[in-house]
Amino acid sequence: MNTEQPRATRSPVVVVGIGADGWDGLAETSRRALLAADVVVGGGRQLALLPDACRAERVAWPSPLRPAVPKLVAEHAGRALCVLASGDPMFYGIGRTLAEELGPERLRVLPHPSSVSYACARLGWAAQDTEVVTAVGRPLERVAAVLHEGRRLLVLSAGADTPGELAALLRGRGFGPSRMDVLARLGAEDETHTTGTAESWSAQPGDPLNVVAVECRREPGALRLGLVPGLPDEAYEHDGQLTKRYVRAATLAALAPEPGELLWDVGGGSGSIAVEWLRAHPACRAVSVERDAVRAERIGRNAAALGVPGLRVVTGRAPAALVGLPTPDAVFIGGGLTGPGLLDACWEALRPGGRLVANTVTLESEALLAGWYRRHGGELVRLGVAHARSVGGFTGWRQAMPVTLWSVVKDPVATGPVGDAEPGGNDTAGDD
Q1: For 171-180, what is each residue's pLDDT tens digit?
Q2: Residue 423 contacts by C-beta under 8 Å, 6 or more apart in sequence?
Q3: What is the pLDDT of residue 335?
Q4: What's the CA gap between 162 and 378, in Å, rounded?
């Protein structure tokens, strides 16, 4: 078998990682590349770290950066081009953008230790056991999805204010006792280290180039949010339009999220299905469609509170609100099943091999699902949940409304709508 890799026909773009220790911290290979360059592109802070001996033309990245990459490289074709990156270019750095825009065969990457490597070295933490969340260009609320007792986190700060904002977030999520270590200008001679707890954090903003290490400690009595689907109902703000905990766990099991997949959550209610789909893996994506504007806003708040602020919320009535949305890998219908054309539209939009799951508590919608089950197969189940409640001086069972759940995988060769939706109103009572 021929294992020879294709060779780039053009000169490679050399990507050099550099730390706060500047030129002195660079390996000899990186120094030689910079000294031989005709053009060096980078951020203003990184370019300022180069000595006078580096005589290359210095070009600061324009904004927005990504669209400028091909043009900038084309402008300097035929010249030795270096790109400066902070730390390891392939770890939340410019290296990924360059690889996607130019192709990995055009790059020669010379990494420097990342801030994560430095921080773990300073703290004696094993890097493979440490959760990393970046707040650079991303919402800090993402931290909430990885807060678990005893876990160690490293948060890559967006600036000097991030430690204080993170402390407030930890307090608000019931993790006030967590220890925080702010490590700034890692690798430089003027490196600093500030320690405290989230509940008593009072340090003033310092250097913007910092990483925050968190040792998670949950307050006594704080709500426990586990890794698997079926978060406590109390974790959600809702008005009764909530897929309850045990039904939600069964629904997510049927939806079976995998990394990178996109979910349509149609009839979002409180957004619990979309939220827990996103919590399954950081690469999962979801769109929640909700006709009621108040509920749509509530879905956004739930998503932020539970660490998945990337949930896209569309306010509008399905199926019209589904037009133009990206093709889903899975669809959940939690309400409005009898709305004209809704099931047809979702089925038609679903990619071949994708999954559709629909829940209902009404006889009208149950009859509709039974018809689709006869035509397309899948699994049709009824879920009954009873809770122990006081009955006078004794204890008895109180049965919740049974939920009918239909789950099906779309045949890879099946296309187009099938069947007619039954007329009727929205059946969202008790559904999400």
Answers
A1: 999 999 999 9
A2: 338, 340
A3: 85
A4: 48
Q: pTM above the 0.85 mark?
A: yes
In this prediction, residue 413 carries a pLDDT of: 65
Cα first-last separation, the chain: 54
Q: Give the model's pLDDT for residue 11.
A: 77
d(Cα 40, Cα 15) in Å, to the nearest integer? 10
**Does residue 3 have a pLDDT over 80?**
no
pLDDT attached to residue 10: 64
| Separation in Å, CA 46 to CA 73, 265, 428 | 19, 43, 55
Q: Which backbone phi and psi does 84 adopt, to 5 degrees?
A: -90, 135
What percentage of the chain reaches a pLDDT higher than 70?
93
- Backbone phi, psi, residue 381, to 5°: -130, 155
Q: Tally Cβ neighbours within 10 Å of residue 259.
A: 10
Mean pLDDT of the chain: 92
**Cβ–Cβ under 8 Å, residues 272 and 236:** yes
Give me the residue label for tokens 């099991």. Answer: 253
* Bridge-based pairing state of the strands 330-333 and 355-360: parallel
Is residue 212 within 8 A of residue 166, CB to CB? The reply is yes
Token pair listed for 68: 């400028």
* 261/252 Cα distance (integer angstroms): 13
Nearest alpha carbon to residue 270 among 249, 240, 248, 246: 240
Distance CA 100, CA 81 (A): 18
pLDDT in tens, 104-154: 999 999 999 999 999 999 999 999 999 999 999 999 999 999 999 999 999
- How is residue 249 written in tokens? 């766990």
Exposure class string for 230-247: b at 16+ Cβ within 10 A, else e: bbeeebbebeebbbbbbb
Q: Write the DSSP string, 240-293.
A: S----HHHHHHHHHHH---TT-EEEEES-TT-HHHHHHHHT-TT-EEEEEES-H
Where are the alpha helices (H) located in 17-63, listed in sequence order?
Answer: 28-36, 44-47
Query: How many CB atoms are located within 10 Å of the residue 224 CB?
Result: 12
For 133, the token pair is 């969340």
